[in-house]
Every structure is written in C-alpha cells, then in structure tokens.
Amino acid sequence: MIKDDDTDRHGAARYPIVGVIGAARTDEEARALAYDVGRLIAERDAILVCGGLSGVMEAACQGAYEHNGITIGILPTDDTYEANPYVQVPIATGFGIGRNVVIARTADVLIAVGGSYGTLSEIGLALNLGKRVVHLQSWDLDQAGAVDAELYVEAQTPEEAVERALEFQPGAQ
C-alpha cells in the first residue's frame, strides 16, 4: 500500500518490494501458504520478487498474478523462458545461486515460506543487510547466535506474515 511519503527521489510512487523465498521442491501445505502470501502482497499493492522458478516461488507468483499483482523473477540461469508462468518480469542472471544476493538486495523485506538451504542463504544475506525476514514455517535460527528479534520475525499465518512484513520501516528501529 502506497502512503503519501512513499516516493522515490523524483517524486514517483514507490511500491514496497516483498521478496518471497522458499524451496523449489515443496509440499502442498507450503504451496498453499505461498499462494496466500502472494495474493495478500498483491492486495496490499506491493511488488513480489522471488527466484522465479517452481514450488514456493511459483505458488506465490500465482497468488499475486491471479490478483492483479506485479511479479518479478530473479532467475539463476541465463534464459528468461525458464521462469514459472506467473512471472511477469523475468530477469535472467546466469548467476546460479548467486542470484540470491540480487533477491536479498532488491527486496525491501522478505517472507520465507518453508525452505531449504537456498532459503537459508537468502535469510542470512537479508539479515546481514539489515532487512526484516518474516518466517512462516521456515528456519529456526535459535542456534545461530544473536539474531535481531526486530529483523527475524515469526508469523503463524500468511495474513500475519504480510502484515509484519509491510509494517517494517527500515531504519525506524
């Protein structure tokens, strides 16, 4: 949702960019959660950015796409046609897993749904960049040492995940 002060340096409207991260190979429960997260991102007039492939990424894109949202896929390959069918803006990086850095840097805030080691790397990158990560049935970082509780936030539902993501204002802690 755009507020009056959400503009870029030229005065143009600046939509929040929400990264949705999670595994390419996942179960139906995670896909359903991701779909709802994508839908809610679209309904809040935010832009969804993800890795652009299958699983959580595809389900989130589908939810956003089917509810008139904008979807961006940061692909690990150099072929834009490898994006899932719900990615509207495919960006072919050819970076392999290095594309996780692009996702973490592009997103204003991230929502992790389930996930594997790629998701864990994106969480770590985002936290290192001082970005909030809302986790929904994702990694438990209790053993990782001092993790900023303002940045790594748990959610129980897709609604709570999107709300907690979009309420965060970087630098306002």
Q: How is this structure best described in words?
A:
By secondary structure, the chain is of the alpha/beta class. It has a single domain (17-167), classed as 3-Layer(aba) Sandwich (Rossmann fold). 32% of the residues lie in helices and 18% in strands. The chain is built from five helices and seven strands. The protein has helices spanning 28-43, 56-65, 99-106, 117-128, 158-167; strands spanning 17-21, 47-50, 70-75, 89-92, 109-113, 133-136, 152-155. It has a seven-stranded parallel sheet with strand order 4-3-2-1-5-6-7, sandwiched between helices. β5 (109-113), α4 (117-128) and β6 form a beta-alpha-beta unit. The longest helix is centred in the first third of the chain and has 16 residues, at 28-43.
Describe the SSE topology:
Blueprint: E1 17-21, H1 28-43, E2 47-50, H2 56-65, E3 70-75, E4 89-92, H3 99-106, E5 109-113, H4 117-128, E6 133-136, E7 152-155, H5 158-167
Parallel strand pairs: 1-2, 1-5, 2-3, 3-4, 5-6, 6-7
Helix pairs in contact: 1-2, 1-5, 3-4
CATH architecture: 3-Layer(aba) Sandwich
Let me know the average pLDDT. Answer: 91
Number of domains: 1
CATH topological fold name:
Rossmann fold
Q: How would you classify the helix and strand content by structural class? A: alpha/beta
Main β-sheet, in a few words? 7 strands, parallel
Number of strands: 7
CATH class: Alpha Beta
Task: Please state the CA-atom Rg, rounded to the nearest Å.
Answer: 15 Å
User: What is the overall number of helices?
Assistant: 5
Helix content: 25-40%
Anisotropy-based shape: globular
Task: Report strand order across the widest sheet.
Answer: 4-3-2-1-5-6-7
Give the N-to-C terminal Cα separation.
21 Å
The share of residues in extended strands comes to: 15-25%
Question: What ranges have pLDDT less than 50 throughout 5 or more consecutive residues?
Answer: none
